[in-house]
Amino acid sequence: MARPAPPRAAEQPLVRVVDDDPAIREAMLDLLRSVGIDAMGFASTLALLEAGLSARPGCLVLDVRLPGVSGLDLQAQLAAGGDGLPIIFMTGHGDIPMSVRAMKAGAVDFLTKPVRDQDMLDAVAAAIARDREHREARAAAARVAALAATLTRREREVFDGVARGLMNKQIAGDLGITEITVKLHRGNVMRKMEARTLADLIRKAGLLAEGA
Fold first, then answer.
1. pTM of the model
2. Which tops the pLDDT comparison, 76 or 125?
3. Span 13-134 CATH architecture
């Protein structure tokens, strides 16, 4: 039995560590690399942004208090720009309001320095898993959108009616066509959307609605 091909470099997770303390930054990089996780370090959020956020999966490990743009400000900036990289925060001066703000904004974890190695590794594993799930969901939504783009205008109208839970007779009445014609369009929709069952078609309608 052939072994699966190893993931390409562009698909391997990359953890970006941002901390202005060189000792802490290098310790985090050493820890991550010791368990086979690719990692890069930056002294500031500006350095991170200047290097650019590649399309590689992974996560960010951010110190809350950084020179220039803080970790929390960067979190807000990335969210506004649509970047969904999961974030783990570290702080030596954390307080409850700060951690609540970070977690409400979607942070994976909020760790207080000195961070236990296992706590960091657990948080990074959770962040990478979350990123993988998000990427798979976006890819699935893009695939469904591409399939939907092949539908004719009338097929899309029938699809929308099915997604709303209408019967063929109701869809026919709404569109001013015969029930037999609805059935023909519905069959085309099932085929073009690669839906094996009605439940699968409804699920794909939900993915389209979420991406709208």
1. 0.76
2. 125
3. 3-Layer(aba) Sandwich (3.40)
